[in-house]
# Entry
Amino acid sequence: MGNQPSRIRRMGVRPPRTKVRWDGSRQRRLLSSFTRVNIDHRLRV
# Structure
C-alpha cells in the first residue's frame, strides 16, 4: 500500500514534464520540416 501512493505521486509529477518535452520535440520537428521545405524551394528556384 505504501509503494502504490509513491508511484502514483511520481507518475503525477512526471507526465507534465514529459508532455512539455513532447511538445518541444513536436515543434522542433515541425520547424525542421518547414526549414527543409523552404531550403528545397530555394534550391529549386
The chain has one domain: 1-45. The chain has a mean pLDDT of 65. The CA atoms of residues 17 and 23 lie 10 Å apart.
